Amino acid sequence: MKIAYHDIYAHPLPADHRFPMLKYELIPAQLLREGVITPDQLFTPVPADEGTILLTHTLEYWQKLKDQTLSAKEQRRIGFPQSPALTLREIVIAQGSIDIALHALEHGIGFNVAGGTHHAFADHGEGFCLLNDFGVAANYLLQQKRVKQVLVIDLDVHQGNGTAALFADNAHVYTFSMHGAHNYPFHKETSDWDIPLPDGMNTGAYLQLLEEALPQLINRVKPDIVFYLSGVDILETDKFGKLKVTAAGCQQRDELVFHALKKHQIPCAVAMGGGYSTHIRDIVNAHCNTFKAGISIYG
């Protein structure tokens, strides 16, 4: 089992980028400390090459990221000021999702400590997302004829609007998003299947909906691989999530997904997505539980 990991200290980010990235250092550290993983399971991907990025993103947008020529408006839409280190981080993350998907095809499951940048569109970024790593990885696998059918299961509390738009006319990628109805993005795109959730939904109701949806998804799509976005902003402790799912419920969510996929021998590439609880320990613990569930179930 391999875990893509980008050391944010290797290419230092500006100070105003650092705190949102902190969990990506703490997650592997905790997994190592608890003995869930070993150091040899962590790897740092090389940056994705331009040709791979352009399978998903427009040349004009990619040129702006390379040349650091995003307008002030474009930067505000993303939520970060542009920097070469941030662009580098995004292309490393995108390659990481390719690498873990290839690993999953051979070994069942792979994890990206970061990733899940589902608000990035072909021609612009938004919501702290510059490049759409699942989009890049899915298009790469299809272009290389490694798979014929992809399923994206997006359980971040925010709709995967960028991913939905990228694959709106692509019959080879089925997008599923179960998200807060009244949460960001306030203009939703149309996934192949959207389940909007009311504010305050509790653990039981959430898990029941997911448990009913998973077999329908698998039977409908018959995917060669699943990209699973396991955002932990569904937690009741999340500052922006608006749902009432407990930490135990969040772990049960992951277990439901992994059990359903393993039952049908479907490879799974996992990215962490969002998490904005007040205490960072709640975020890190929930993300680490995703790793534990996947490792335990896939073996």
Report on the structure:
This protein has 299 residues and is an alpha/beta fold. 45% of the residues lie in helices and 12% in strands. It has a single domain, classed as Arginase, Chain A (3-Layer(aba) Sandwich). The relative contact order is 0.15. The protein is globular and about 45 Å long. An 8-stranded parallel β-sheet has the order 2-1-3-8-7-4-5-6, with helices on both faces.
Characteristic terms for this protein:
Ureohydrolase_dom_sf; globular; single chain; hydrolase; 299 residues; 11 helices; hydrolase activity; alpha/beta; 45% helix; Arginase, Chain A
The gyration radius over C-alpha positions equals 17 Å
User: Into which percentage range does the β-strand content fall?
Assistant: 5-15%
Q: Based on the structure, what is the oligomeric state of the protein chains?
A: single chain
Which whole number gives the mean pLDDT? 94
The CATH architecture can be named as 3-Layer(aba) Sandwich
